[in-house]
Amino acid sequence: MFTSDNGPVVDDGYKDDAVQKLDGHNPAGPLRGGKYSNFEGGTRVPFIVRWLAKVKPGVSDALVCQIDFLMSLAALTGQKLEVDDAPDSFSVLPALLGESKTGRDHLVEHAGALSLRQSHWKYIEPGGGAKVLANTRTETGNDPGGQLYNLADDPGETKNLASEQQNRVKEMSALLQKLRAQGRSR
After folding, report:
1. Helices first, then strands: H and E counts in the chain
2. Protein fold of 8-45+105-182
3. Residue 148 C-beta-side C-alpha neighbours within 13 Å
4. What are φ and ψ of residue 71, in 5° steps?
5. Which residues are paired to 116 by β-bridges?
6. Rg of the Cα trace of the chain?
7. pLDDT tens digits for 129-160?
8. Cross-strand bridge partners of residue 138
């Protein structure tokens, strides 16, 4: 398995001329934000599984999280985890093995405020604070109003659909509050 811990950041206080050397390159590609951001540029990371004897080559849109490695690898190796060993982890082993196109139902993300992914929908709760971090020039996702994006149609999170999809915002906000109250993401 190959993955990363967060999206890109170019100038995190290092004196390496990285910003000057970009030459027009956007390290987050078409995604908005980066490290320290609730936008996909900060939370979506590369993830590659290679197991020649078991996994067929392909691309998946299954929603998985690195915390799911705990339950998934336990399932793969026949290990039993206690309920409190990995309270936020789901077994997404069929998705990792390419046997299923779906992973987890939802995912709570955190970068200042919380956001909730469900399928191709992403809700970012209202939050204060800087909209752009001055030192890294990263859009944070902070906004006093809630945000809703359809990532299937808009992976760059350019069109906030919260005002058009108020019922979906209410449902996702309620689920996020319920999960917060439980202190876990399931």
Report:
1. 5, 8
2. Arylsulfatase, C-terminal domain (3.30.1120)
3. 16
4. -70, -40
5. 108, 123
6. 18
7. 999 988 888 899 999 999 999 999 999 999 99
8. 133
Closest CA to 88 of 113, 71, 73, 103: 71
**pTM of the complete model beyond 0.85:** yes
Helix (H, G, I), strand (E, B), or coil: what is residue 148? strand
Rounded to 5 degrees, φ, ψ at 47 are -150, 120
What is the residue type of 173? S
Contact 158, 99 (CB under 8 A): no
Is the Cα torsion angle 33, 35, 38, 43 positive or negative in sign?
positive
Query: What is the rounded CA–CA span in Å between residue 146 and residue 148?
Result: 7
The one-letter code for the residue type at 132 is V
Residue pLDDT, tens place only, 53-74? 999 999 999 999 999 999 999 9
> What are the DSSP E strand ranges found in the chain?
2-3, 47-48, 106-111, 113-118, 121-124, 132-133, 138-139, 147-150
Q: Which of 183, 119, 116 is nearest to 147 (CA)?
A: 116
> CA 82 from chain center: how many Å?
26
Longest dimension (CA), the chain: 50
SS3 category, 3: strand
Block residue for tokens 């945000």:
147
